[in-house]
Design goal:
The complex is a heterodimer of chains A (296) and B (312).
Chain A (H helix, E strand, L loop, with lengths): L29 H18 L1 H4 L30 H36 L1 H15 L3 H12 L3 H28 L2 H8 L4 H38 L10 H8 L8 H28 L10
Helix pairs in contact in A: 1-3, 1-10, 3-4, 3-6, 3-8, 3-10, 4-6, 5-6, 5-8, 6-8, 8-9, 8-10, 9-10
Chain B lengths: L1 H27 L4 H6 L5 H10 L6 H13 L13 H36 L4 H13 L4 H15 L15 H35 L2 H8 L4 H12 L1 H25 L5 H10 L3 H29 L1 H4 L1
Classes of the chains: A mainly alpha (296), B mainly alpha (312).
Chain lengths: 296, 312
Amino acid sequence: MSVTAPSEKPAAAPDLPRARPSRLKVFAEPTTLISLIIIGGFVLMALCAPLIASDPIAISPAERLDGPSGAAPLGRDHLGRDVFARAVYGARVSLSVGFAVAALTTIFGVAIGVYAGMSRVGGALVMRLNDAMMAIPAVLLAIALAALFRAGLLAVIIAITVPEVPRMVRLVRSVVLGVKAQPYVTAAVSVGTSGLALVFRHILPNTLGPVLVQATYACASAIIASAVLSFLGVGTAPETPSWGGMMADARRYFRIHPELMLYPGILLSLLVLAVNILGDRLSDALDPRKLKRGGL
Amino acid sequence: MAYIAGRILAAVPILIIVSVFIFSLVHIAPGDPAVLLAGDNATPQQVSEIRERLHLDEPLPVQFGIWAVKALQLDLGQSIYSGQPVTRLIAQRVEPTLVLGFVTLVLTVAIALPLGIIAAWKANTVVDRAIMGFAVLGFSVPVFAIGYSLVYVFAVELRWFPVQGYKTLANGPLETLRSVALPAFALALVFAALIARVTRAAMLEVLNENHIRTARAKGLGTARILIVHALKSAGVPIITVIGIGLATLIGGVVVTESVFNIPGIGRLTVDAITRRDYPVVQGVILFFSAMLIGVNILVDLSYALFDPRVRG
């Protein structure tokens, strides 16, 4: 920085000591609020499913592919199951997979990432493995794992978490390396702060923001991935109501009953959209560089 | 040259670890790998035959050695379902997948770059918000949902395109294009959403730099500054994300081929998985991973086109 450079602003009233906008302000923005309300709505729907809808598994062959009726407001599928009930219950699979994958990815990703950032030799080794894992297309790996472990919610969660972790590891490690280079960390080391204290006092708090954003994105992509698995027939058991499974069932009747494909598709997209928007808002709030002015 | 050789050499250990991982997939799963590999309807005799043929009673490292040596000779074993060599199955199915992938990539760039550039140019305006809104939507809607919507509108209702299937290049390139148009567009919407976001971010970064102001001061036109000066500087992150995004694209191809009934490698994967045809599953994952690694080497090499510092 040159001292003689003319200041960019004319020396008007000094507006410097303006309070930095609180990061929590992000939760008051309309887009954030709307996406939180949508996600909350889905959670409520999943929790209260038995109160809102009838049995999603009961089949009724006589009423197969019937249109909307009082008992089944969105009609019935090819086995005569209540489409509305299956759509409502379907939120359970999507949300549990989304939240579980986000949580597991965070736990493993942060643990491995911090280790990789702190240990020089071990870190290099971990990152080689990590690069290799990232070289395998995520959806493909998830499909293969899910197929190997056979149908089940837990299998689906594990299958989606495994390819998701390396991304988190890479992110956390880069944050750790960045923080380690900061003068205050060097200072802390020089006054004898132990490695563990360093991690908990200085490193982990700094990873919080990026990890939160990444976990939100992981949640969104896990919801899509679980729908893909169900759609391809390697997800949760076929009778378990899931949006991906509903869409897979609807394929054969697609030309006459496109609405069977439409309902789960809309719910799925709406939920993922809300989670992604939340991720974007968090990311903007935590990274002030994002607010860069563009244009020419 | 040293840079190129270095990049290629760096890929070798990654490919080795990937193959160890793919090899061990069958061994991580609960149960006897021979039983798994033999499939659900195998007799005990068939199981022991497979155990012998694949050396499954040898120690794991020996097994891997045998498998890897064969893989290097392009022998990935035989399909349990059809008995055909996995490499031949892949070779037979490669055309539709490559065509679909290529058309998708072209469409993606054609959609994403202009959108990303315009969004950065008109940053924080209604135009920008609309484009970025479209982008978030693009990667929030699952590709099979987009696929079926397109089929419904353009194939079932308007009848502009075939509903399903693939016409080989032998039928003439136009027929092929028509048959992959909808699946490629469905995939491109998802992929373009990702690329448009990165393009916007990279362009914003560049547009704040001094040389853009200089170009402006010289009196250059907006289009020239955006495309010649800014886009070139923004090239590296954009190319990088195209390389990384390819992993997502491959996942999308697997799903899309099964939506549109295209007999490509993605379809092969899904069929192999539903039939629990593990040698094929392993072969296909290895194929896609090698492709991904290869493309990312090309991406690294292409940096030299955009950034002269890499060349030195």
